[in-house]
Amino acid sequence: AQSVTQLGSHVSVSEGALVLLRCNYSSSVPPYLFWYVQYPNQGLQLLLKYTSAATLVKGINGFEAEFKKSETSFHLTKPSAHMSDAAEYFCAVSEGGFQKLVFGTGTRLLVSP
Amino acid sequence: GAVVSQHPSRVICKSGTSVKIECRSLDFQATTMFWYRQFPKQSLMLMATSNEGSKATYEQGVEKDKFLINHASLTLSTLTVTSAHPEDSSFYICSASNRDRGAYEQYFGPGTRLTVT
Questions:
Q1: Cα–Cα nearest to B6, from B89, B111, B92, B117
Q2: Angstroms from B93 CA to nearest CA on chain A
Q3: I want to staple B2 with a disulfide (CB 3.0 to 4.6 A). Which of A108, B20, B36, B107 is the partner?
Q4: Cα–Cα distance between A85 and A76 in angstroms, integer?
């Protein structure tokens, strides 16, 4: 069975600092991996996805993530945090295209001035 | 492109009544739609997967007779919470995908907050 572990329910950074949100996955087959962002009382917006192409994936709003098979990780980074990045971030895994997503527990990113 | 809407965005109903939530793909045909439930400050839990014209596939522990899902067209799926109780209060989110888009992506609706009093 697939699973996703997001380390840290809350991450606090200062504006302009590096953002690092951690995600480790477990999958019996080559995974598809996703990062989503959720603002309060809203649905999810896709930040980026890994679908077995390049291991370094660039997404929207300056975010990127690197798929590391040996570490079973797919950490999300952004070089410089903005206040508008404050939100809940979810990592998710699926066992192939169009299959159901299994979500991590989420990480709330707090950005201080 | 790839916009998914949900209606209503918020609904309050009395215990014992039923409520219907609609999920529409506005600019593409959704061959598959998913329904998720999210409790406050928690992650999304998949409730069911529905393919157009077929019966929904429910996840373990989800009551089929309580959460009725219909996916009658390629742009509309509905979730009906029957005989709602306060413990059904939650944030319900749908998503839609289409194999022909080739993007291996689910597009999410904005969610519906259900409060049962």
A1: B111
A2: 7
A3: B107
A4: 13
